[in-house]
């Protein structure tokens, strides 16, 4: 260690719920460590969510270590400020060694096996490093967006706040995953004319046979399914989340109902040239596949109910409320009165600051339950790191406890 270096046994990169969960277990075990956060502990919930954002999973699944949900509505869905308060309450519950506004700019591994972490103008030496910065760093916007007429306002979903933020006129929402489908509803409820480019995202019903679908799936131990036992194995990590909402107590997001009530549905966006949007001829296929996924989930619940002899009310099969015609006409944005585009096509991870051999040929990190082949180097908080809940409030505690056990060499139970 050079004179200018500082030393700490463990460094955690990222002060969101994953990094904070890691810190909680390390604090319990009295392991000296530092959590570096480029912004603030709640910034992703505060700065990257729209005003009417709420959880799509019920409150009872909020189970950060030592800090379960204790409110009066376990089967409700926390809204944005409640989520922020929940995370802040977690921070206050154990006072982690958190250094906010301190970005990590590089990590290297030296011949002696230690990691050198540059953060906030200092260089730190650590034997263990946990990357808990998430997988949603770089917002995806296609290259051709720069050629769209500047009179059409463009915003990514992470920067969308509310309908009033957009100029008057129709809105084109690109992408029908969780964010896209919920933003369409947000705009529609504000009486905006909306066009939606429908991709391959699946959907799920909010309630079925008298209960929230999440409650059924929890009883069926779906959330304990590990990625190694998932039918898609590692491919599960690339699947888009099902669209549904917890808004106003929770309900289905049925794109066919949107269409019936006036939302313009189109297939996957192919490109926009000369301010004309061109779509793939896959609208019917995408709607049908989303409905099939929902139907398959219901069938699995039906089988569980029958197998376990559960007394649950019957429910009639879903009947599509609307069918698209064969028209796949392009959309002239200006002729249609479109003055805004909301890009809801996701994010790319950014690990360019990590110079450690833990990535495959596609520059994706390789791990098993968060543990990489580089001794003492770990990932936490990523989708399907180990189970469905790995990137969420519901399962990150289990993953953090596991990694804490790898660091300490002790068997640490999940809090």
Task: Explain this structure.
This protein is of the alpha/beta class. It folds into two domains: 5-137 and 349-408, FAD/NAD(P)-binding domain, CATH 3.50.50; 139-347, FAD/NAD(P)-binding domain (3-Layer(bba) Sandwich). It has eight helices and 24 strands. The strands form seven sheets. Strands 1-9-8-7-23 form a five-stranded mixed beta sheet, with no helix packed on it. A five-stranded parallel beta sheet has the order 6-3-2-10-24, covered by helices on one side. Strand 15 and strand 16 form a beta hairpin. Helix 1 crosses helix 8. The two termini are 36 Å apart.
Q: Helix coverage percent of residues?
A: 10-25%
Largest β-sheet summary? 5 strands, mixed
Number of helices: 8
Rg to the nearest angstrom? 23 Å
The name of the CATH topology of the largest domain is: FAD/NAD(P)-binding domain
Structural class: alpha/beta
In spatial order, strands of the major sheet run: 1-9-8-7-23
CATH superfamily of the largest domain: FAD/NAD(P)-binding domain
Shape: globular
Number of strands: 24
> What are the low-pLDDT stretches, counting only 5+ consecutive residues below 50?
none
Number of domains: 2
Distance between the termini: 36 Å
Please give the CATH class of the largest domain.
Answer: Alpha Beta
Mean pLDDT: 95
What share of the residues does DSSP label as strand, in percent? 15-25%
**In CATH terms, what is the architecture of the largest domain?**
3-Layer(bba) Sandwich
InterPro entries: Auxin_biosynth/cation_transpt (IPR050982), CHP04046_FMN-dependent (IPR024000), FAD/NAD-bd_sf (IPR036188)
GO molecular function: flavin adenine dinucleotide binding; monooxygenase activity
Protein name: FAD-dependent oxidoreductase
Pfam families: Pyr_redox_3 (PF13738)
